[in-house]
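Z., the sequence and structure:
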Amino acid sequence: MTAPVVAVVGGGQLARMMAPAATALGLHLRVLVESPTSSAAQVVVDAPVGAASDEAAIVRLAEGADALTFEHEHVPNALLDRLEASGVAVRPDAAALVHAQDKIVMRTRLAELGIPVPAWASLPSDADLEVFLADHDGVAVVKTARGGYDGKGVRVVRAAADVADWFAAVADSTGVPLLAEEKVPFTRELAVLVARRPSGEMRTWPVVESVQRDGVCSEVVAPAPYLDPATQSEAVDVALRIAAGLGVVGVLAVELFEVSDDAGGPPRVLVNELAMRPHNSGHWTIDGAVTSQFEQHLRAVLDLPLGDTSARAPWTVMANVLGSSLADPTEALADVALLDAGAKVHLYGKEVRAGRKLGHVNVSGEDLDDVRRRAVAAAALLRGDASA
């Protein structure tokens, strides 16, 4: 009996968290890791070392695999085209993944699909930015079209001089294209995860609220509290339309701004970012949903029927462990267990660095305030903050 093989490019925590789901389904997981000590390499037996830009390494990774997928988007698109042409089942394929790789391509396509997005413009020169600023009350959010994540590659600017270094890098071909977006007066950030398989079946999880601190996700509340039913319906509809319109296979995370309606109606949503892989906003599903995003992603890329996405409890809160004063967060495992036997700890085996995502804690229950307090307190212990 030969188990289906899923090959994954990238050896971080997302690939690591696919491993338990793959084991439960009886799948063979093969992961291209950046180093023998990377997060996924610590738990996956079949973990060759190589770079995401190394064509030979990825060809070897995909050999004999039933599907090739990703835990990050930083894979050369032309390489994926060649793999597909050779018969590799690349999921999501290059034509879809480019929308998560390039924000200008993404914004252009979403506009064609009629998806609500912030006002934006590409920036061939600093003069174009000055025009955009003049049209948007003198403030804009400038982003690098490729490579940005967790607050990197994003600046709020009031003059072209604020990103002079980025324009200089573009001019000498060491940088990437830039775009400007309006600074949206949002009330909070939401996210919808949708899974889609090649046959077209799609499922979504409950809409969640994502709490950001310093450009990095700190907490996720599932479901998003006090969400207007019309706004919820719009958010889910937007996610499904994007998944179908872009031909996504696997898990798609759609990050949204919730914006008050000037006419007094229910809040509306604008698409902020896309990720075509499991996502931080879906980590709560490991303990809080019938089917986790990691199991669902594996099902989807193999074109298996998708699992139930219902929540297991009225509320689940995920709190990220961002940095730690401890040499290793595992030093606090006993303290967390004594504090809260219901707190579910997920650590990524990463070396401690300031602000780095080292793990997360999920807590589920009946009372939102209690659940949130418990998740935040457990994460604080793992950060070495016993006073929180």
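The first helix runs from residue 13 to 25. The radius of gyration is 21 Å.

Let me know what you think.
H.
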